[in-house]
Amino acid sequence: MAKALIVGSVALDTIETPHGTAERILGGSASFGSYAASYFTDVSIVGVVGEDFPPEAIDQFKARGIGVEGLEVREGKTFHWSGRYEYDMNEAHTKATELNVFADFRPKLTAEQRKTPYVFLANIHPQLQLDVLEQMEAPKLVAVDTMNFWIEGFKKELTGVIERCDFLLMNDGEARQFCEKPNLIECGRELRRLGPSTVAIKKGEHGALLFHNGGISFFPSYPVMELKDPTGAGDTFAGALIGYLARKDDTGADNLVRAVQAGTCMASFVVEDFSLTRVANLGPGELRERVAMLREMVRLPEPDEAALESRLASGVL
């Protein structure tokens, strides 16, 4: 089992959905990613918070065995994001973004963190992602996430990050925006040509496309009956994926597919409640059960080739 490192934002979120409102709850890409990864392997978090960050949140990280030596506490206030969702939970409407101490965040890795083999650079400024890469010592796999803001304003820097990563994650809108193409298959192939051996294009509730050395794979999302808050679903997906790969210490095509299945199912838990509440209370065997159900959902029976050939020969098909 290898270790994982998660670098990103640690935040206090205020979120409004059709199911209620939660104020100043634990959020941020590194929070969701590291918590998900901790179910599979030893993981450390790198981020910054202010003096207002609740000590019990740090205790929550520690309780999951997450290394917090890279979580800097500085004078000032913690990054705060406020947003709302309507009944279309695929789109967040930002009400306020207060960077606070996160505005001057400069990741500084310890000597041990520099040697971590599996790294997830969550959604932060591309230049900061590059700064982390400069500090790393030959990682086995680097996964990178981004957002439309960086694509629009810092595409050159982001391209430099993509060229140096192994696993790129984008949602469908971001992939189209970056590649300036409407077709996601073209986008996935173009992004791979930049350098990553694997590209995951996330489609929210409609699943994900995975472009890798073994070809193209499609994964549906796990059907969730109780969707309360989708915040952090993508970061949870990525964190679980990285954690799974680190646990197996295997980046082969078959294991990548298994890792995506694990990430998909872990993300299905986090959306069932606000913040990390649902993921923090997983029961024994719950994740394994959902992975098995997801695999059953996508299982296809073998075609009756004789019947198909007969129809083709008769000119019906």
Task: Describe the model.
- This protein has eleven helices and 13 strands.
- By secondary structure, it is of the alpha/beta class.
- A hairpin with a 6-residue loop joins β6 and β7.
- α8 runs antiparallel to α9 and α9 packs across α10.
- The model has no long low-confidence stretch (mean pLDDT 93).
Which structural class do the helices and strands define?
alpha/beta
What is the CA-atom radius of gyration, in angstroms?
20 Å
Overall number of structural domains? 1
Please give the alpha-carbon distance between the first and last residues.
51 Å
What is the number of helices? 11
What is the CATH third-level topology name? UDP-N-acetylmuramoyl-L-alanine:D-glutamate ligase
What are the segments in which pLDDT stays under 50 over at least 5 consecutive residues? none
Describe the main β-sheet briefly: 9 strands, mixed
Could you give the count of β-strands? 13
